[in-house]
Design a protein that fits this description.
The structure holds 3 protein chains of 3 kinds.
Chain A (H helix, E strand, L loop, with lengths): L6 H14 L1 H23 L7 H23 L9 H6 L4 H35 L15 H23 L4 H28 L5 H4 L1 H40 L4
Helix pairs in contact in A: 1-5, 2-3, 2-5, 3-5, 3-6, 5-6, 5-9, 6-7, 6-9
Chain B lengths: L8 H14 L12 H8 L3 H13 L3 E4 L3 E4 L3 H28 L3 H19 L1
Helix pairs in contact in B: 1-3, 2-3
Chain C lengths: L1 E9 L5 E10 L4 E6 L5 H8 L7 E6 L2 E2 L5 H4 L2 E4 L10 H8 L8 H10 L13 H14 L4 E5 L7 H14 L5 E5 L3 H4 L5 E6 L2 E7 H7 E4 L9 E4 L7 E4 L10 H10 L1 H8 L9
Parallel strand pairs in C: 3-8, 3-9, 6-7, 7-8
Antiparallel strand pairs in C: 1-2, 1-4, 4-5, 9-10, 11-13, 12-13
The chains are: A mainly alpha, B mainly alpha, C alpha/beta.
Chain lengths: 252, 126, 283
């Protein structure tokens, strides 16, 4: 019996995706590279040094937006009526499809884009080092904010993977909308909980110093555990739902 | 190959073989194309080609050497000649006779044009 | 090899396209799937490719539902759809990214076929005409050497010489281990290739017979005066051809177009003759 998971098929599928998207990938990298170069050069101006908060600004905007575009691009083939037949005909299991898409748009993307941004930023520094006032220094990319951004992408991106599979038209817009709706639902749920616990006395946080302390403590402990549990469950759950969506998908 | 609508395709393939044997394109004990080659050349389902080969084997016009292919039988030419002659006398001639009667053509007229034809062919050979 | 039983299908919020379909497809044969437009030929092909799932009944390959899309089964199925898009890649690159998924894929065969179709591996797919793209896909499907090859209207968009090349390629492609299903309404293009006829009509299978039984039981041609009463179907024009019961007559070549029209006009009568039920027992 053939396996339902085969790493060779996964890599063939990733290679296939890259070749199919190679035009878009090259264009995007050129544009992103240009933007990073210009932004880094601008940040060197004045103090002759690239500060980490200067670089991370442009990096996170590009990193997140391109990451999302890439996620949606990977599944474009399965939504176009005239090309989806080939995608679904390919002897690849749904599990392999999800893993390949996730590896490519998440893990590999994070590594490659970070490396790419680092190299471009470093090139900018080297370019400027021709002027004597700019000393050669390493680009300070791995700041705390960098890790927060990467962690955020790593855990939240699967939701967009799911959106890319579920919706067939205006996929990005619908996914964002769905995310906002979910966010509001959770927000309102929390409000209700707060209301229930405090008996409607919202000012408990502000007026009583003891409560403020308690609240700070709770935030620290509970959201730490919450965030951990959330990230542990959320990403894999999104991937699992994506898997079932692909399994059930028919073409028209 | 253009197929005539009435006759089954496998028999048309058989005719194609007969013709090649009669014009001596395929000699006795010579290897002939395989089932697959014939199917591809005449653009038919290989099953149809197999039927033609089976028919030819039953008529003992060709024989099969296992693992090598099909060959024209020792007496392939004579057999084909006999078959085609029988077909000519039994099927084609009566049809011509029927048409001769319908058009009121005398046998003498036909004999005359036949002699002329033979003479022309012989002249060309010289 | 393929077993379809009691299959029912309809698109979302739409009328039933296929109803209670039961069919068997076995290897070594080329099946012709006929039917008027909108009778569900393409839908049946897609169901057999595991791209659509039956609402009722099943479509199985060696006892596994194709809708499960198991890797063992999907490896053995390739489909050339009627209408499709191919990515903007060279033919060579297209082969390189897709061939690794098919274990029995033969590169030699693929490039031979590409040459036979007068294309070159370096040509970009986006620069090709629709007919040429179709040739690339047909070449890929044949070289993938899957045990089931499904072709939906393969000769649409092919010019006359290409149709002949197509027939040659199909004649060479079929072997003991392969089953080819061709859906078409261009009956003339393929009649010499097919050895089993399936006709769909009114969402059902109205005819399902091998060529051998058809030519054994039916006679095609111009009926003589004394056989007028044996006519099953005749074209309503002067001096036209007719389908008759063969009885002890000489075998004739199956005229698919005539057969198709005969089946569509009165499926019951022709089925009774081919299945050997006595003529006139049903009063």
């Amino acid at each position: 019996m053939a396996q339902s998971f085969n790493i060779k098929r996964v890599s063939s599928l990733m290679y296939r995706n890259l070749v199919l998207l190679r035009g878009a990938i090259i264009t995007t990298l050129l544009v992103a590279g240009g933007l990073i170069l210009v932004a880094t050069l601008l940040s060197i101006r004045g103090d002759y040094v690239v500060k980490s908060n200067e670089f991370i600004g442009v990096f996170s905007v590009l990193f997140l937006s391109i990451g999302l575009l890439f996620t949606f691009a990977i599944f474009r083939e399965m939504h176009s009526g005239k090309s989806s037949y080939f995608y679904f005909l390919l002897p690849v299991t749904a599990l392999e499809r999800v893993i390949a898409a996730w590896l490519l748009s998440n893990v590999i993307y994070i590594i490659v884009f970070t490396f790419f941004a680092f190299v471009i930023g470093q090139i900018a520094i080297l370019l400027c080092s021709f002027s004597p006032s700019t000393g050669i220094h390493f680009l300070p990319i791995f700041s705390e904010t960098f890790w927060t951004v990467v962690k955020f992408y790593f855990f939240v991106q699967p939701a967009f993977l799911l959106g890319a599979v579920v919706f067939s038209k205006n996929r990005i817009g619908k996914t964002l909308l769905a995310a906002i709706v979910v966010f509001f639902c959770v927000f309102i749920y929390n409000l209700i909980l707060c209301f229930a616990f405090t008996g409607g006395a919202f000012d408990v946080f502000t007026s009583d110093p003891f409560s403020t302390d308690a609240f700070d403590l709770a935030t620290k402990d509970v959201s730490g555990i919450g965030a951990f549990l959330f990230s542990l469950v959320f990403g894999p759950m999104m991937l699992l739902v994506t898997y079932f969506r692909i399994t059930e998908k028919e073409i028209r | 190959m253009d197929f005539d609508n009435g006759k089954p395709i496998y028999l048309q393939i058989v005719d194609f073989f007969y013709e090649n044997i009669l014009i001596r394109k395929w000699q006795e004990n010579e290897r002939i194309p395989s089932v697959r080659e014939v199917a591809v050349t005449v653009e038919v389902n290989p099953n149809t080609a197999i039927r033609a080969f089976n028919h030819l084997q039953e008529q003992e016009v060709i024989y099969n050497k296992r693992g090598i292919g099909y060959f024209v039988s020792e007496k392939g030419y004579d057999t084909v000649l006999e078959i085609k002659k029988k077909e000519f006398m039994g099927v084609k001639l009566p049809n011509i006779f029927k048409e001769m009667m319908l058009l009121d053509v005398e046998f003498e007229e036909v004999k005359h044009s036949y002699d002329e034809y033979v003479k022309n062919v012989n002249d060309e050979k010289k | 090899m393929i077993q379809i039983r009691g299959l029912k299908f309809h698109y979302p919020k739409s009328r039933v396209v296929l109803n209670d379909i039961s069919l068997d497809f076995s290897s070594g044969n080329i099946y012709g799937l006929f039917g008027e437009n909108g009778e569900g030929k393409s839908t049946l092909i897609k169901l057999m490719a595991g791209l659509l799932f039956p609402k009722k009944g099943y479509c199985q390959m060696s006892n596994n539902d194709l809708s499960k899309r198991r890797i063992e089964d999907m490896r053995e199925v390739f489909m050339v759809p009627e209408d499709f898009e191919l990515p903007s890649l060279s033919i060579h690159k297209f082969e390189k990214i897709n061939a690794p998924f098919y274990p029995k894929f033969s590169q030699d065969q693929f490039y031979d076929l590409i040459r036979e179709f007068k294309l070159s591996p370096q040509e970009n797919l986006s620069a090709l005409s629709f007919g040429q793209k179709k040739k690339v896909l047909i070449a890929f499907g044949v070289s993938a050497n899957t045990s089931l090859l499904l072709l939906d209207e393969p000769t649409n968009g092919l010019d006359i010489p290409s149709k002949s090349q197509f027939r040659k390629i199909m004649a060479s492609a079929v072997d003991e281990g392969k089953c080819i299903v061709i859906s078409t309404h261009q009956v003339r293009d393929l009649h010499s290739l097919i050895n089993h006829v399936v006709i769909l009509g009114q969402s059902k299978v109205v005819f399902d017979q091998p060529f051998s039984s058809i030519s054994e039981k039916l006679w095609f041609g111009r009926a003589k005066q004394d056989r007028q009463d044996q006519i099953i179907y005749t074209e309503p024009s002067f001096g036209s051809r007719a389908v008759l019961e063969r009885l002890d007559q000489e075998e004739t070549e199956v005229d698919l177009e005539l057969l198709f029209n005969a089946v569509v006009s009165n499926p019951e009568r022709i089925n009774n003759v081919v299945k050997g039920k006595m003529h006139g027992t049903v009063i």
